[in-house]
Amino acid sequence: EVQVVESGGGLVQAGGSLRLSCSASGFRFDDYAIGWFRQAPGKEREDVSCIGSSDDKSYYADYYADSVKGRFTISIDNAKNMVHLQMNNLNAEDTATYYCAAGRPDARSSVCWLADYRSWGQGTQVTVSS
Question: FRET label pair with 19: which of 11, 27, 84, 86, CA 20 to 30 Å apart?
């Protein structure tokens, strides 16, 4: 069974940093992409950062939403079956529940196409105080 579990959320002041972690089980990183998505109150869930291959292995890519480029970094720890999201220079607009998800992106879509992600964690809250 494909499972992902997030950890590492919390309360941080604006300008600070947090590292989120996603523990994965039941699958190989070679076969699934991992994505970080977030949802703020009253807003739709949105992509943040993703990494991995398409379902047919025609591409391997990483992706960052424009709002986090240059501040967030996604990385894979294959030895520990974990994916991390390092978040620096946080601001109030980053406040949201952050979700880790595993999926098999269609070769015709972006690596971070939300609909391609079927296995979701329970979410971890990130609150940035200004």
Answer: 27
d(CA 89, CA 56): 36
Per-residue model confidence as pLDDT tens digits over 24-71: 999 988 899 999 999 999 999 999 999 999 999 999 999 999 999 999
Average pLDDT, the chain: 96
Strands 124-129 and 10-13: parallel
**Quick count: other Cβ atoms within 10 Å of Cβ 112?**
26
Three-state DSSP class for residue 116: helix
Residues 76 and 62: their CA atoms lie apart, in Å, by 11
Half-sphere exposure of 118 (CA within 13 A, CB side): 8
| CA–CA dist 91, 10 (Å, integer) | 13
Cite the beta strand spans of 45-116 per DSSP E: 46-53, 60-64, 72-77, 82-87, 96-103
83 and 34 in contact (C-beta within 8 Å)?
yes
pLDDT in the model for residue 7:
96
